[in-house]
């Protein structure tokens, strides 16, 4: 099956800093989603972005499907941005395959 | 409803007990998925429904796991004779159609003691 690698595994930020999370995948994809898992365990949808660039407030994402990677940008980070960020892809079937996640800690 | 709803949020079961986890998907969503998330890992696929048809159950870890969606809406994941290794968060997701954006419920945290 498709392999999904996220980097870095852990990220510690000072409040107000910017950061980039990366997701590499091993095959072509039909769907790519970024999620934020909050402390209560719920997966919050951030972006549905199989290709191109999207922005939502302080967050933006870019997927370059031909080069098999996606980037999630967090600008002016806040303590509420803390949590685990997951990239998940669908290749030639219908199952979301998740990366191992990036744990982000934003310090005040 | 507005989002995917799962119940119970937490379940503690004694080893050997049967449990049933409920998922109420977003209204009109044809596709429904169950995932299992172990501590510190990403969710792993368990099973997929299109309407009431279970099209893929390849991720179910053993024959103690059973899922159904009899009327193409609410789904139940049942685990018989629970074992300690079944302890995990069970997540339900739904989407308008397969391969489209999936939305997840809050999950059920199962602890088997």
Brief overview:
Chain A is mainly β.
Structural features, described:
The complex is a heterodimer of chains A (108) and B (113). With 108 residues, chain A is an all-beta fold. Chain A has strands at 4-7, 10-14, 19-25, 31-37, 43-48, 52-56, 59-64, 69-74, 83-90, 97-98, 102-107. In chain A, the strands form 2 sheets. In chain A, strands 2, 4, 5, 9, 10 and 11 form a 6-stranded mixed beta sheet that branches. In chain A, 38% of the residues are buried. The mean pLDDT of chain A is 96. By secondary structure, chain B is mainly beta. In chain B, 0% of the residues lie in helices and 49% in strands. In chain B, the strands form 2 sheets. In chain B, strands 2, 4, 5, 6, 9, 10 and 11 form a 7-stranded mixed beta sheet that branches. A 4-stranded antiparallel beta sheet of chain B has the order 1-3-8-7, with no helix packed on it. In chain B, strand 7 (65-68) and strand 8 (75-79) form a beta hairpin. The termini of chain B are far apart. Chain A binds chain B through residues 30-31, 33, 35, 40-43, 45, 48, 86, 88, 90, 94-101, and chain B through 31, 33, 35, 37, 41-45, 48, 56, 59, 89, 91, 93, 98-107, 109.
């Amino acid at each position: 099956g498709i392999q999904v690698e996220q980097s870095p595994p852990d990220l510690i930020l000072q409040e107000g800093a910017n950061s980039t999370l990366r997701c590499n995948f091993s095959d072509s994809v039909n769907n790519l989603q970024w999620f934020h898992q909050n402390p209560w365990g719920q997966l919050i949808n951030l972006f549905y972005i199989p290709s191109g660039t999207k922005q939502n407030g302080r967050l933006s994402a870019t997927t370059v499907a031909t080069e098999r990677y996606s980037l999630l940008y967090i600008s002016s980070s806040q303590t509420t941005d803390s949590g685990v960020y997951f990239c998940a892809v669908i290749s030639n079937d219908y199952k979301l395959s998740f990366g191992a996640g990036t744990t982000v800690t934003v310090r005040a | 409803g507005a989002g995917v709803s799962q119940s119970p949020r937490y379940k503690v079961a004694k080893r050997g007990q049967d449990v049933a986890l409920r998922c109420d998907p977003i209204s009109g969503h044809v596709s429904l998925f169950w995932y299992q998330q172990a501590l510190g890992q990403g969710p792993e696929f368990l099973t997929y429904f299109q309407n009431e048809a279970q099209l893929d159950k390849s991720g179910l870890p053993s024959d103690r796991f059973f899922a159904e969606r009899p009327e193409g809406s609410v789904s139940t994941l049942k685990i018989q004779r629970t074992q300690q290794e079944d302890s995990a968060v069970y997540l339900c997701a739904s989407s308008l159609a397969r391969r489209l954006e999936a939305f997840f419920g809050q999950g059920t945290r199962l602890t088997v003691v």
